[in-house]
Design brief:
The structure is a single chain. By secondary structure, this protein is mostly helical. The chain has one domain: MetI-like (MetI-like fold, Orthogonal Bundle), CATH 1.10.3720.
């Protein structure tokens, strides 16, 4: 018993170390400057905020953060709103071809981004959406929406049918059933899928790189990738690490705020009785 607990503790400590070390290393490096960046000291002897100041002084990084927030927020809101109605139809209504439709939805989410890049580029440039945040929202929805629909459909199927039948007997319309009956019950699932959709849109790189050319319209992953120097020692590693910390921090905060809902959403339906 003690050996099992010891192995469990060591395994948990290893997972925590592997998960946190990249972020802690980036945080420590973001406070380094000059020769400390290439020294052997993990934490700087004289930490400073110069890298963070240079990030906003030399780059439109504030605009890049705002762009990422707008795109990720819009993608998450649209994905959840559309997926909620789609999940209600796919999870509750019986119609011919429902299984094939769900398989197609799941199959779309498995396509690599590069496979649909040329087609999406034509769809983006035709209505004049190139260098526009709307292009990023629409392209990100191609992958976040199928995943969100699939997950919410699974949760919708696990809800007791008796709840819906009781609401129908009481004269509730489909809109009231979705809004006042299913929505409160699906709250953990909505938080979980919404957070995953937000992270996917926040970290998306290929579409953002392809559909934007103006630095003021770029999102943070593309902005960070374009930080450069003439040689290895001239690359602004401290600024890059500061940008990485600022990009990762909102995701960490969101996970900490909604961790209870995330756990409830991930474990919902795991036990039936």
């Amino acid at each position: 018993m003690r050996g099992g607990r010891l192995l469990h503790g060591l395994g948990s400590a290893l997972v925590v170390f592997v998960s946190l070390f990249p972020f802690v290393y980036a945080l420590a490096t973001s406070f380094k400057h000059g020769g400390e960046l290439f020294g052997g000291r993990f934490w700087p002897a004289h930490p400073g905020w110069s890298n963070y100041a240079a990030l906003f002084r030399e780059q439109p990084f504030g605009a890049n953060l705002a762009n990422s927030g707008l795109v990720a927020g819009a993608v998450t809101a649209l994905s959840l709103a559309l997926a909620l109605f789609a999940a209600h139809a796919l999870g509750r209504l019986r119609f011919r071809g429902r299984g094939a439709l769900l398989a197609c939805i799941l199959g779309v989410s498995m396509f690599p981004q590069v496979a649909v890049l040329s087609g999406l580029f034509e769809l983006v440039t035709a209505p004049g959406l190139y260098d526009n945040l709307a292009a990023l929202v629409l392209s990100d929805l191609v992958f976040t929406l199928p995943f969100t629909v699939w997950v919410l459909t699974t949760f919708m199927r696990d809800l007791p049918v008796e709840i819906e039948e009781a609401a129908i007997v009481d004269g509730a319309t489909p809109w009231i059933i979705i809004w006042r009956v299913f929505l409160p019950l699906l709250w953990p699932a909505l938080v979980t899928t919404g957070l995953l959709a937000f992270i996917a849109a926040w970290n998306e790189y290929l579409f953002a790189l392809t559909f934007t050319s103006n630095n003021s319209a770029r999102t943070v992953p593309v902005a960070i990738s374009l930080f450069s120097g003439n040689s290895e020692h001239e690359i602004p590693w401290g600024t890059i690490m500061a940008a990485s910390v600022l990009v990762t921090a909102p995701l960490v905060v969101l996970v900490l705020i909604f961790q209870r809902k995330i756990i409830a959403g991930l474990t919902a339906g795991g036990v039936k009785g």
